[in-house]
Each structure stands twice: as C-alpha cells, then as structure tokens.
Amino acid sequence: MKVSYNWLLQYVDISCSVAELADKMTMAGIEVEAIETAQNVPSGVIVGEILERNPHPNADKLSVCKVFDGKETLQVVCGAPNCDAGKKVPLATIGTVFVDPEKGSEFKIKKGKLRGEESMGMLCSAVEIGLGDDHSGLLELDNEFKPGTPLSEVYPGDTVFDVEITPNRPDWLSHWGIARDVSCLLNAASKMPEAKLPSPVTLEDSDSLVTVKDKELCPRYTARIIRNVKIAESPDWLKERLLSIGLRPINNVVDITNFVLHELGHPLHTFDLDLLAGNRIVVRRAKNGEKMLLLDESEIELKDHHLVIADAEKPVALAGIMGGEHSGINEKTTNILLESAAFHAANIRATSRELGISSDSSYRFERGCDWGMVEHAGARAAQLILELAGGELVTGLVDVQGTVPEMDAINCRFERLRKLIGVDICNEKIIDIFEKLGLNVSNIDSEKCIVVPPLYRLDLTREADLAEEAARIYGLDKIPVIPVRSQTVAPISNDAYLAQETLRNRIIGLGLYECLHYSMVSAKSALCDSRFTSNDLVKITNPLSLELACMRPSLLGEMLETVERNVSRKNLNLRLFELGTVFCANPEIFEEERVELCMVLSGRKTPELYSDALKEQYDFYDMKGLVEGLLETCGIINYSFKKVDDKRFAPGQCAALLLNGRTAGHFGLLASVFTEGLRTDYPVFAAQIESSEIFKAQAADNSPFFTPVPQYPATTRDVAFLADKSLEHQRVIEFIKNAKVKNFESVKLFDIFTDEKAVGANRKSMAYTLTFRNPERTLTDKEVNNAFEKLRQRMESELHVELR
Amino acid sequence: MSNPIIEKIDKAVIDVEQRLAAPITEADIEQVRIDIFGRKGMFPALSKEMKDVPPEQRRETGQAFNVAKQKFQDLLDDAHKHLSGGSGEKSSDIDLTLPGRKWKAGRKHPVSIMIDDCVAVFRRMGFIVASGPDMETVYHNFDALNTPAEHPSRDPADTFYFADGRLLRSQTSPVQIRVMESQEPPVRIVAPGRCYRRDTPDATHSMNFHQIEGLYIDKDVSMADLKSILLAFAHEMFGPEVGIRLRPHFFPFTEPSVEYDFSCIICGGKGCSVCKDSGWIEIAGAGMVDPNVLKTVGYDPEIWSGFAFGMGIERLTMLRHRIADIRWLYENDTRFLEQF
C-alpha cells in the first residue's frame, strides 16, 4: 500500500525526518519496503504569465510568446496549442536542468533561437515537470499564483512509502489509520479528519429508501441523498492526493469516495439516484443465474450466496466489491445516493475469490471493517461532495443496523506480559501504551487490568495479543539478550536427521557430488523407472504445469535429465548422487514416502591423467565397488549381490543388492533406452538403493567388537586354472570357502583373462591366491602343502577346471 | 692400567663430535678432516707414538686405533650428508609441475551444507532434529496452526493439493504440531525439510524449497530467549559482528509475531544493493507460540510457553555464496557443484 507523507501530515504532527519515520513505522510493524520521493519540480521552473501570443513567422505550429517572469518580460517560443495570452503556466528559465528519471540523462535549458526567433526559456506541460502524465498542452496554473514564484513552492513534492500491511491489521489500510499509530509512536498530537455537515435542506421521505434483506451479510447500511450536484474535474489538491498514491483522478464525486477510502479506510459507493429503478436500494442475496454488468464492463453470473446492492428491479452493485456499469456516476449525474455500509468479511472474501474480482474496497471489507467508521466516512464524503460538487443534502442519515459488534473484554495480567516479552516494563507503562493505542483500560489493580479494544481493533482478543501491542510500542529493540539456555531435553538418538546426515557424508567421502532435484516431475519422467505404472504415481490436483504434475516415485528420472544436461554441456565425467524423498501411491511397492539413494558414474575416473594407459573409464565393477565401499564404510559386512533382469538396466549388467536377505536396491549399466541420445561415448552406470535398508543393516552391525590382529605369519599358495567361461568367480570363491581346508584363511583373485588364442574358445584362465594361517602357531610348509594339494584335486574334479 | 693413546682417541672423538654438531660449513668439515687425518693430523702423530706402546697393550691399541679411524670417517660422512640436506642420494629429475593425481572427495550440495551447518549450531544449543512428511494433512499444515479457514495461503492458487484432500506442506511448521502431539514438553527441536508453494519459478522463487523450523517450549520462555537464540545463531553462522533486529509481524500460529533481520552480511550494514541500502536483510519469521496452538496439542498455555521460528534455507545459501538466481541450486551442473 502506498502512503503519502504529505497526506499523513494532515492528521499527525511529525517532528522527525522521513527516514526516521520510516524506521519507526517498520519497527512498529508497518513495514516500509520502499521510500519513493515523488519527482520534485526542477529548480529554475517558475510561474510565468503569458502576456502576448504571436504566430511564429517561420513555423505554422509554433507561437512566439511574451512571458512575464515577475521581473521582466521574456520572449519564449512555444509549440503548445494552449499558450494563450493571460494564462499562467510553468516557465523553465535559462539554466534549468531536467533529469530524465528513466534514462538518468540531463537536459539543460539554454538561450537559443528556434527557427530564427530568440527563445529565453521553455513553457512546460505537466509531464515535463513530473506533475502528471498530461502532455497535450501547457500545464495551466491557478490564476492566483504570482509570476516568478518558484513552482516547487506551489508543488512542494511528496514522499511516498510503500508499506506492507499484515492481514491482521485492516485498521492500517488508510492514512488516518497509519497516522493514529504514528501519533502513538512519536508521542505526537493527531486529529481525525472532520465531518461537518449542514442539516438537510429539504427533508424527503426516506422510510423506504433502503431495505436490507440479509442483516448477517450486511450488518449496517447507511445512505445519504445529495441533489443537484455538479460533476466536474476535482480540484488540484484532491487530484494530487490521489496521484501521489498512484490513483487516476476521474471526477469530483468518484475522486471523493476514493479519497475517503484512502483517508479513513472505509470503502464507499455512490449511485446516480435517477438510474436506480424505484429510486431505492435493496440489499439482498442475488438470485441464482442473475446477471449483472460491472463497472469494468465484465458481465458476471451470480448465485444466491452472493450479496448484491439492488434497486427495485436489478442488482446495481456487487456488495462491497464493485459497482455496476449502469448505475454509477457519470457526467450527467445530478442526484446521488452515497452508500456507506458494513459487510460480512468472509462472504466478501469468498465472493471476490470465486468471481475473481477484487478491488480496493473488497480488499478492506474482506479483512474486516470498522463498524464505527461507517457513519463517519459517509459524513466525511458527504461534506466533501457538498464542498466540491455543490448540491444539497436532502435526507439525513438513513441507517439500517443489525447487531452492533461487541468487543470482548480481555483480562490482562501485567506479570504475564512481562514474562512473555522478557522485558521489565512497569504496569504504568503498559497501561499508557494501551491508552495511547485507544484501548479502554479499566479495573486496574497492581496485578491486572481489563482491556476493551476499540471497534477497529478486531485483532485484539486475547492476552497474547495485548503482549504484542505492549512489546511493539515499547520497542522490540529493548528486549535484552540473555544467556542461551543450552541444556538438552532429549537424547541425540531421537534425532531424525543424524542417520541421513552421516550417510550423506560417507557418500561424499567416497567422492560423489551431491545433486538436488525437485520433488515434482512429469509423468513421463516418473515412469522411466519401470517399477512404476501410472496408477502408482502420486498426482497433484493443481500442478503448476504438466511437467510438474507428479510426485517423483524415483530419483532416476531427474538424475537422467541431470546427466543429459551435463553431457550436453561437455561435463562428461560424472559421479553424482542424490539422497531424497520419493513418493508412491501403491503401498505394495512402498508406503507413501521414503528416502532413496541414487548414484551415477560415467566418464573417466581421473580426468586429469595425461598418460593414455591410465585413461580408465568407469565400468560395472566401479559401480559395484562403490556400492561395496559405501556399505563397508557404513559398517555393513553382510551383503550380497544377485544377477537379475531389470528394465532399467542393460541385459546381463544388473545386480540386486541384498541386505539381510531383503532386496535393498539395484545397480548396473543403464539400459540403452536411457542413454541412446546422450552425446557421450562413455557408458553410464547407476545405482538405486533404499536408504532405510542401509540404516536397518547398520543398526544390526552397530559398533562391532574388536577382533585381535593375528600374531603369527600367514603362508600363501597360488592356484591357476583354465575353466569354462561360464564358471563364475563367486562359485569358485564359495567352493574354496566351503571346502573346509585346514588353516584356510582367505582367498583372493589375482588374475583373469580370456584370450582365445592362449586359452581356447569359451575358456578363461583364473588365478587365485589362498592364504593359510593358524592363530596359535607358525604353519609348516608341509601341512600347508598337504591341505593345498587336497583342495587342488577337489577343484579339478568337482569344479571341472584344468589346473595349470 | 691406563693407555694414553686410547685416552687421546676418546678425547678426540668427543671433541670432533662437538665440533661437527655445531652449525658448520664444508670448510669446517675439511678442517676437522685435516686435524684428524691430515699430514700433520692426529693419526700420523699417533702412528708415531705406537712404537712407544708396551707390547702387551699393542693389540688392544691397534684395534682401538682402527675402530677410531672408522668412527672418525663415519662422523665426517654424516656431517657431509647432513650438510647436503638429506640422504646424499643423487637428485631425481622428475618434472614436479606435471599434474598430481588428485584424491577427490565428493561435494555436498550447498543447500545440504547450509542445513547441516544450521543443524550443527542448533544441536549445540540443545536442539535435536525432528521430521514430518512432505505430504501433509490440512489439519497439520493449517488448522492446528491456528490458520483461519479463509486464509489465502490455503487457496489452491498458493498450495498444492492431492485428490484425497491432503496437501504438500507449504511450510515446515506442521512438524511443530507433530512433535507436540507425540511428546510432552519441554521441547527443543529443529526441522529442516522441503516445502512447496505454487510460485512460478524465477530468480528468487522456487515452487520447491527448503526451510528449517525451530520450536522451543519450556516454562517461562520469553521473547528474550527467542532473540538470544537467534542472535547466537547469527553469530555462529555469519560471524560475531552480525547484528539482529526483530520487527513486529503477523503469523497465525505465533503471538506476538516478529520478522527478524540480520545486519547485512554483504556490506556489514553500511547499505548495498542486496539490502536495498537498509543495512538489514530479512531472514525469516518467528514468534511466541500462539496459545491456541498450545491448546490444540494439549499443552496448557498457563504453564508452558515457547517460541517458534522458520528460515528459508535457499535464501541463506544464496546469501552465503552470493548466488543471485535460485535456479542454479536445482540445475546440478557439475561446474556449479564442484565450487562448494
């Protein structure tokens, strides 16, 4: 909301600077987001009087004027159509500097000749001196101004605050409302705008003027009738007020209602009485299907929960929101009905929202209006209309009232307030603040008082609300800084983030870069994870776009997009992960929400290597090793892998990770359908693991007990053999481990190759190192050889390998 | 029976050790060599004395003589090595400017860094982390937080909804309710997490963002506790020179409500484009937990009071790293990620 400093000055004496005022307002909750200084008239521009106008001898469109500047008469060439003799207009004298507010460029008035005629300055339009947007001709000044008067004295300029008003404070939505609080903040005198009305000239019968059929939605409706008004342009002061807060002046009567809305905060409406069928007002609910044309020329169809202001036949305004097209003030209007009413806040909000129509009026009514202001605002507007548009007040106040709202008395315990705010503020100061804010304080004793807020403070209903008022005015900056009480109230084992945080740190320790993606994805992206069908997706009913309509069931879709984005930018070496929440609508897959881990490897392992031999690219065993490494840093040793078919991965290059017998995830070479279009030659490997399975397995292996390091030396023996290509490493390992070889400790693959010429088709050579150890003594060669030889023979016969 | 030659040798060993232990140059070492092995040195002199040694001592003296020779040679060699600064091995001619094979740790996303840092600060002050679901009930996200039925934030124009009536939480505040529903006071939790609002993405808005919520409930908790904890946070996060100010504001679930600003961490409060010349940067909202909220979860507001606060993680992250456009955070370009 825009607040004019000059306007505020009408109601409150401000003794501090603009910057100080803005700071005080901000610190009291009226947040000043920006301070704009309205364009001031450049110095050097004065009031000039045109004494003579002569045609320019060399240009049809120019005139040569004699202009009096208060001291002497100057010749000025002017192109405006209205530079007539006798008018007073702004004269930019020699040396005046104009600054283009948008470009920042400067333009200086110099003595010069225009088409051969000397010109000693420039006559200005409103737009040229920043006093409006009229550029059709010279700005015609009031004839009272003396030639030579600096124009900046006539138009002193203004400062406009852009303030943010929180929804609980509708009483701040006006200049008077702000002034009321500012007077309390500055301890300064304030005066409410007066409304002095003459007694009605001729009394007309007004008994049937207003009928309110729904007093719940319209608890109060007042009307006044003013006859024989003259619709005209508003005087400068009124236009200036409206322009200062960005409103466009229309005509005197409309401008007055807008002015009063921004002065007192209460929305008003004026009707052309002669356009009201039956010359009367009926406040009623609309009929279903009833239509009306609004001021902005939009047609709306109404329902019976919408409140309308109607005449004897039809709706003429959407109550509290917007007037109708055919009942408002126009140039021919002579008789007006001035409405000032109260409407039900929630109903106005609902109607405004439903029909998509909002206005300065609905903005205030939906936040709650001041019952007490209904009459005053109407009177204030009537007074201004009589002053500025003439006419006679022909009826007194027609006031149809429902129940007067009652403000609850609040029990206020001083000590309670002090404890909540944390400052030592005495009872008297608290009472003083309340009273300055216009609250009624009674039944005061040493411990408590009773506070009744005024009708415009709908936000004050409880002790806590009073604490806020006391704190706000006393000053939040006076709240002391005290030692932080840092004792714990719950064990760290209750911490919901620790496990995830630790896991993330471990993954980073393994060298991966963390990614962050949105939780919303397109259905297409979601379904690239073949575990899900459309029915399994959690769908948003009001997404921002179809691209963001589903909650991600998997991290894979977006991770693929990130791979693609990076690859297209030539970031080919990728080791990425995300640890994030995924969502599912099918409890058979998983319940609602869980945290998953997605890892991706592609490109070169050590990009900075320069020797060709070392330019290794990631392969399946890197991804497998990453998973193994992660599990082992997590302290998990009981894991295994199983070759599976999975559409996400290339055939034959996908493994399932088993933790405690349950599938915890999958990894492998991504299926070609995902990588076909990628502009990289490197294969892309991915892993998807459910993090809760890691946490569970971790809990089982938590804090392992120490195993003594062996004290006696080990003995090793190598076994090499040729085998069928289909013989898996795992089979060999398990065979050896299960062979119950005496003093056997471990086995390790040290060589494997599949050269057709050397070992034959469909054959491979494998070589293992076996380690033997006895924890109590040093083994002899003989006993090791015996055990080893037995094993070799069993391998030959049972594994069907050809020993080498 | 004393042996004058052996005594001389022993003395000479101590003397040479001392001479070579002091800071020396090649010339000093050479002088020692001359004094011991030179033509007019100790050994030629001792050789001459050998003929005077009684026969029964000759063997012993000869051995000592040879051992000493070796000893002096070793001392001289060591001194040379020491002086040449190392093993004395021949220097290798590898090109040290060739690139090292970097041992690369991964990188934490800047949003995660900020969350972890916030959590660490609050854990130090006795808080632990609580969590809640992203898919929330209207009750937890709005009703229990004292949000009026007609509050604009409930509007489908602002909040994402699901067909079953639930929504994507628009704030981390529902975690407050879930925690208070599940435990008795006192409470001290922070809750980092994802939030969602129907904002069209631009440089400063994202429909998906992170907040960290704080809730502190105990006996006799005041706004002074709130201010002090937020100040401690500001100091830990951005340094001891950072100031804090509270401004009155409005939130349905706190009363009194405040917004809090940090003195501008970019310009130090002097005024710059980031703080719009105000010297202050709006960080987030906070306040004393509204009595209605306490009643809703079954806490007696006459006994318990407390405060809550919430901060936008992306905003803090962007301030800390001077990132002007929030969309960088969700683009995952490795050249961005590797900077943190």
Describe the structure.
The complex is a heterodimer of chains A (804) and B (340). The model of chain A has no long low-confidence stretch (mean pLDDT 91). Helix content of chain A is 26%, strand content 27%. Chain A folds into 6 domains: 2-38 and 159-186, 2-Layer Sandwich (Phenylalanyl-tRNA Synthetase, Chain B, domain 1), CATH 3.30.56; 45-154, OB fold (Dihydrolipoamide Acetyltransferase, E2P), CATH 2.40.50; 210-401, 3-Layer(bba) Sandwich (Phenylalanyl-tRNA Synthetase, Chain B, domain 3), CATH 3.50.40; 410-477, Phenylalanyl-tRNA Synthetase, Chain B, domain 1 (2-Layer Sandwich); 498-700, BirA Bifunctional Protein, domain 2, CATH 3.30.930; 715-803, Alpha-Beta Plaits (2-Layer Sandwich). Chain A is built from 21 helices and 41 strands. The longest helix of chain A has 18 residues, at 781-798. In chain A, the strands form 11 sheets. In chain A, strands 28-32-33-37-36-35-34 form a 7-stranded mixed β-sheet, sandwiched between helices. A 5-stranded antiparallel β-sheet of chain A has the order 5-4-3-6-11, with no helix packed on it. In chain A, strands 13-16-19-20-21 form a 5-stranded mixed β-sheet. Chain A is elongated, with a radius of gyration of 43 Å. In chain A, helix 6 (252-264) runs antiparallel to helix 9 (373-389), helix 10 (414-421) packs across helix 12 and helix 11 crosses helix 12. With 804 residues, chain A is an alpha+beta fold. By secondary structure, chain B is an alpha+beta fold. Chain B is built from 11 helices and 9 strands. Chain B has helices at 4-21, 26-37, 42-50, 55-83, 110-124, 138-141, 174-182, 223-238, 291-296, 313-321, 334-337, and strands at residues 128-129, 135-136, 167-168, 187-196, 208-218, 244-251, 254-263, 280-289, 305-312. The interface between A and B is large, with 92 and 87 residues.
